[in-house]
């Protein structure tokens, strides 16, 4: 039975760790955004490297959506149509929250994200886990990781706190799809709760996506 599961949260929240553990336990297809297909991985480099001011929030929305469209066409839809479970590290909720939080015109930008999503992507996950971790802890973990992919982390703690608020508001708006998981616990404890909820969705969830 196909099922589309996504993980969301602020940078360093531990969502990639959880996506990896769940995909292994369900023998699912693991993928990520931005990226997940060769073309989208090229767009990823434009987005996560360089100065924070490199792109406006509006340009980011277009680039993330372009990457998502390629990922959807080449990776996600073929896997779902083949009956696989797809576990994706970030998806459209990241655009809603990150780009909605980043611009000066939050509500207007959010409407544009939703319009582009409806026109170009058109699907939502069956189940989304929001790994909710204390922003200071998460930021310290992300910074400890180092590397060149720090464009969003460079916006600092206040931005991470605003993102957390954004994810929790989104979860309150869509309680049927979004599930908030306390990320301030050891990885294996979180993984157990996540696996339990995913298995429940699999036994009662959707199937036969065409
Ligand atoms: P994200 O994908 O949200 O940026 P990662 O899963 O890559 O987060 O985790 C960031 C860092 O924190 C990694 O070094 C990882 O090993 C560590 N980590 C992940 N989950 C936990 C956890 N529950 N408790 C402590 N450290 C964690
Ligand atoms: P990711 O590799 O998941 O970063 P991290 O492991 O630090 O959480 O994502 C790269 C960055 O891109 C991350 O800071 C979040 C941001 N992002 C958006 O701003 N909008 C989006 O639509 C997506 C998918 C990611």
Shape: globular
Largest sheet: 5 strands, parallel
Sequence stretches where pLDDT stays below 50 over 5 or more residues = 206-210
- The CATH homologous superfamily name equals P-loop containing nucleotide triphosphate hydrolases
Instruction: Give the mean pLDDT.
Output: 92
- What is the number of helices? 8
Distance between the termini: 12 Å
* Molecules bound to protein: adenosine-5'-diphosphate, thymidine-5'-diphosphate
Number of separate structural domains: 1
Brief sketch in words of this structure:
This protein is α/β, with parallel strands linked by helices and 210 residues long. The chain has one domain: Rossmann fold (3-Layer(aba) Sandwich).
Task: Lay out the secondary structure.
Elements lengths: L2 E6 L6 H12 L2 E4 L5 H11 L8 H25 L3 E5 L2 H11 L3 H15 L6 E6 L2 H11 L11 H17 L4 E5 L4 H18 L6
Parallel strand pairs: 1-3, 1-4, 2-3, 4-5
This protein binds adenosine-5'-diphosphate and thymidine-5'-diphosphate.
Question: Can you put this structure into words, describing what you see?
Answer:
It is a single chain. By secondary structure, this protein is of the alpha/beta class. The chain is 57% helix and 12% strand. The chain has a five-stranded parallel beta sheet with strand order 2-3-1-4-5, sandwiched between helices.
Task: List key phrases describing it.
Rossmann fold, alpha/beta, 8 helices, binds adenosine-5'-diphosphate, 12% strand, disordered C terminus, five-stranded parallel beta sheet, 210 residues, 5 strands, binds thymidine-5'-diphosphate
């Amino acid at each position: 039975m196909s099922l589309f599961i996504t993980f969301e949260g602020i940078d360093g929240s531990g969502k990639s760790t959880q996506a990896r553990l769940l995909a292994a336990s369900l023998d699912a297809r693991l993928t990520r955004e931005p990226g997940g297909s060769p073309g989208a991985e090229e767009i990823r480099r434009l987005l996560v490297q360089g100065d924070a001011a490199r792109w406006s929030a509006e340009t980011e929305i277009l680039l993330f959506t372009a990457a998502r469209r390629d990922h959807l066409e080449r990776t996600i839809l073929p896997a779902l149509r083949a009956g696989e479970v797809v576990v994706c590290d970030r998806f459209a909720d990241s655009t809603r929250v990150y780009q909605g939080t980043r611009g000066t015109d939050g509500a207007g930008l959010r409407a544009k994200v939703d319009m582009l999503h409806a026109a170009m992507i058109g699907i939502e996950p069956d189940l989304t886990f929001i790994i909710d971790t204390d922003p200071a802890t998460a930021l310290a973990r992300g910074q400890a990781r180092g590397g060149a992919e720090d464009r969003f982390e460079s916006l600092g703690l206040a931005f991470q706190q605003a993102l957390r608020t954004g994810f929790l508001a989104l979860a309150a708006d869509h309680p049927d799809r979004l599930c908030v998981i306390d990320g301030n616990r050891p990885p294996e404890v979180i993984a157990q709760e996540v696996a339990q909820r995913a298995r429940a969705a699999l036994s009662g969830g959707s199937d036969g996506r065409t």
